[in-house]
Amino acid sequence: MEFNTGTVTANNIDFHYLELGAGPLVLCLHGFPDNAYTYRFLLPVLAEAGFRAVAPFMRGYFPTGKPPDDRFESILLGQDAVALITALGANEAFVVGHDWGGFATLASAIMAPQQVRRIVTLGVAHPAAMGTDYDTLKGSWHAYFFQMPSAESAVAANDYDFIVRWWRDASPEYDPPAEIIESVKATFRMPGVLTSALNYYRHTFHPANRAPALDTLREKIATTPIPVPALAFHGTRDRPGRTPAFERMDRHFTAGLKKVVIPGTGHFIHLERPDEVNAKIVEFLKK
């Protein structure tokens, strides 16, 4: 599938994006370790359904540029999403997000509910629902490991074999085609991408790395329920601790939350069951 491509400046960053279709804007945000091509199956379906589907490479992920201040805290990802809606010439949009893109999606709905009509999350629970039990901590081991100075060399070793193992652990019943893994590796081989991607974790989870200027907004994001209709997908084979958080997050959504659990799927649920997931996304967005 060939995608149209473009570049737009938003939030002082030059974002490169994939695009298909015309109509109401659907912004599709990827996570880690991944790139915009993670929506290779969703974009054509959205375009066929009458939407303008746009998947940007997130800040720091080549060919998108790095932010001038070299900051990657998750709150800033939400600001990027809101800025992209305007930069792409739209007054409002639907927002879809996987992994870090999911956290950006949740944040964008709180920051700009007048611009974000509905949201879809894939493979994430609301952060406020995450616990501190053993399974949750076990499933989030990487967030701690990535704080280490040695993380770059470990991830890059043996031509980014870490990425292969990551995908295998995150979706144990999914065997991704070689071209998907190679696409992700190619992104991470580009200068600066790996450190930028790890800085998402370093700037979000390590208190010493958080920007004090974002304290007020950070508190707002942490305490404000999601004020727009939401659809959330979860795979039962996703990392430990995700299922309990997914089950208890309803109270953090005040405009309606529809949850879809697909047995046997893992973290990359949108690639494992694309037909089922994409159909449900289109149905939700058309309501």
Overview of the structural elements:
The chain starts with a strand and ends with a helix. It is globular. By secondary structure, the protein is of the alpha/beta class. The mean pLDDT is 96. The protein has helices spanning 42-48, 74-87, 100-111, 134-139, 141-145, 151-170, 178-189, 193-205, 215-223, 242-247, 269-272, 274-285; strands at residues 4-10, 13-20, 25-29, 52-56, 93-98, 116-122, 230-235, 257-262. The protein is built from 12 helices and 8 strands. Strand 5 (93-98), helix 3 and strand 6 (116-122) form a beta-alpha-beta unit. The protein has one domain (4-285): Alpha/Beta hydrolase fold, catalytic domain (Rossmann fold, 3-Layer(aba) Sandwich), CATH 3.40.50.1820. An 8-stranded mixed beta sheet has the order 1-2-4-3-5-6-7-8, sandwiched between helices.
Q: What is the helical fraction, as a range of percent?
A: 40-55%
The CATH top-level class label: Alpha Beta
| N-to-C series of helices and strands | EEEHEHEHEHHHHHHEHEHH
What average pLDDT do the residues reach?
A: 96
List low-confidence stretches.
none
Q: Measured on Cα atoms, how large is the radius of gyration?
A: 17 Å
How many separate structural domains? 1
Could you say which structural class the secondary elements and strand pairing correspond to?
A: alpha/beta
Using the coordinates shown, work out and report the CATH topology. Answer: Rossmann fold
C-alpha geometry: globular
